Amino acid sequence: MNRTRSAALVLALISAGTLLAGSPTPNSPESIPMSHADQPKRAAEIVKHLQAPVDAVWKALTDADELTRWFPLDARVKPGVGGSMFCSWRNEYQFDSPITIWEPNKHLRVLWGPADAPEPDLFGVDYFLHAQDDGTTVLRLVHFGFGTGPQWDGMYDGVTRGWGHMMFALDNYLARHRGTPRHAVYLSKKIENGDKHAALRKLFSKEGLFEDSSLLNAKPGDRFRARLTNGEEISGTVRRVIPGVYFEAMIESLNHSTLAVQTDPCKDGEGDVLAITLSTYGLDAARFATMEKQWTAAVERSAKVK
Questions:
Q1: Are residue 284 and residue 164 in the same domain, yes or no?
Q2: Which helix (H) or strand (E) holds 260?
Q3: Does one domain contain both 151 and 7?
Q4: Tens of pLDDT, residues 200-258
Q5: Is residue 170 located within the same domain as residue 188?
Q6: Is the pLDDT of residue 156 over 90?
């Protein structure tokens, strides 16, 4: 496996808010475990029942504009076998992945390494699409090529949870916002003094963004109503919480926006960052610009911990 490419891809997923903090993650190519043909492998698998027809799901996975509505901030696709899928997060992280299987409405394979690698060393993602009689689609995502040794456990667990987040985002886009461009608040600020738990607590306080610190102790499925430090009220449903590390929710009052707040390892391997990804749809441009400015200031304040 090409370790440099794999490291870049994993870090790109971190930047997208998909690889949860709390798991060891590679911060340099040398930290990526090596694959060997004689070693057993495992795969991360997620099955999602999507409320959209199979052609819409295929388009969301393979069309550049559609990809930016739930996954990267920028995308380019050269379709078909021998083509590639380019994804970028404001050029902070970017990669161009080869496409080796292209069966419209059925099967897509995108590799996280060179296409000419030996079959046992391939590392990448299969998307299997199954059209249902009621016009919906079952999507089975298989991220294959992980080793079984303990050095792979952090990456395996984090990427598995990460793809769970992306399937949540894809489901929300297809069910509620299909065809609508996304406006994303994408923020990442290095935490001063290195106390990531304190930075997250500060963000969920009157000094940060959310005045209600109890959100960090909420349970999946809990309904919430919270006042922001700019005076605005938001409400929605909690999806996932890792106490002191991660918070994810659907904000219904913002036209069903998805929110992920977390701490991540810095890409240079030193310290941690406080990160927010908020995916909004259909908001007035002026309102979004004001909100992005206010949220940016709140993250910058919260990253300064004493």
A1: no
A2: strand 257-265
A3: yes
A4: 999 999 999 999 889 999 999 999 999 998 899 999 999 999 887 889 999 999 999 99
A5: no
A6: no
Q: What is the DSSP letter of 22?
A: T
Residue 215 belongs to domain spanning:
182-302
Q: Measured between alpha carbons, how far is 199 from 103 in angstroms, rounded to an integer? A: 46
Structure tokens of 66?
A: 């559609």
Identify the domain boundary among 176, 198, 222.
Answer: 176
149, 176, 203 — which closes off a domain? 176
186 and 128 in a single domain? The answer is no
Q: Name the 3-class secondary structure at 266.
A: coil
Kindly calculate the radius of gyration of the chain based on its CA atoms and give it in whole angstroms.
19
The sign of the torsion formed by the CA atoms of 188, 189, 194, 200 equals: negative
Distance CA 162, CA 157 (A): 8
Q: Where are the alpha helices (DSSP H) in the chain?
A: 3-15, 54-62, 64-67, 153-176, 196-203, 285-302
Q: What count of residues does the chain have?
A: 306
How many whole angstroms separate alpha carbon 192 and alpha carbon 173? 35
Q: To which residue do tokens 């299997």 refer?
A: 128
Amino acid present at 30: E
- pLDDT value for 262: 86
Read off the pLDDT of residues 95-116 as tens digits, 9 standing for 90 and up. Answer: 889 999 999 999 999 998 888 8
Q: For residues 118 and 9, what is the distance between their CA atoms, to the nearest angstrom?
A: 20
DSSP letter assigned to residue 21:
T
- Assess whether 114 and 209 both reside in one domain: no
Same domain? For 163 and 32 the reply is: yes
Q: Cα–Cα distance between 304 and 164 in angstroms, integer? A: 30
23: domain CATH number? Answer: 3.30.530.20
> In this structure, are 13 and 157 located in the same domain?
yes
Q: How does pLDDT run across 248-302, given as a tens digit for each residue? A: 999 999 999 999 998 877 766 678 889 899 999 999 999 999 999 999 999 999 9
| Residue 240 and residue 154 share a domain | no
**Total domain count, the chain:** 2
